[in-house]
Request: fold
Amino acid sequence: MKKLAMVMMTAGIICLVYSGWNIWKGRQLQLSTLQQAKAMTNEVGNSVKEQGKYSSSKKIDKNIIGVLEIPRLEKELPIVEGTTPDNLEKGVGHYKTSALPGNKDQIVLSGHRDTMFRRFGEIKKGDTVTLKLKSGSYLYVVDHMKIVHADDRTIIHSTKPKEELVLTTCYPFHYVGNAPKRYIIYAYPKTTRRP
Reply:
């Protein structure tokens, strides 16, 4: 019995260390991606460069396209091109088939509920979100939210000539495993009302 207890305790410690290592590694990757995104959009100040966390001499990941700011959550999140599992570990993923800001069509960004979009449910109607890209900053106002089934593919579609920002994540927020639904936030350019 003592040997079994020791084996179980050792296995538990190994699992905790492994999980902790993965969480730390993921946060470091996200921080690095955010710093590169800020550098790319000219938002990195001298203080970060002086700390040696990011140097302009380092190569910027070609998949990084910008920064998503969510004031309600006091968050700045890196935006990467694509929604592969590797990309979503780095930041918020931009669906390649959707538009980019300023192109008067639907922009779709997706993130994991337990990393990038933690506290996502706290966002309210009327809140603002900003997308900062090389081409400039784009301010959007949250208009409404909805919950859909995970298999619902009608969310992603052209909205030409109206620009629409769609933020998606898995739902319920505290679900363990593959969540059966998606939480969708719709936002529109500040100067535009809902179509």
The first helix runs from residue 2 to 40. The chain has one domain: 40-189. The helical segments are 2-40, 46-50, 85-90. The beta strands are 64-70, 75-81, 92-94, 106-110, 128-133, 136-149, 164-171, 181-189.
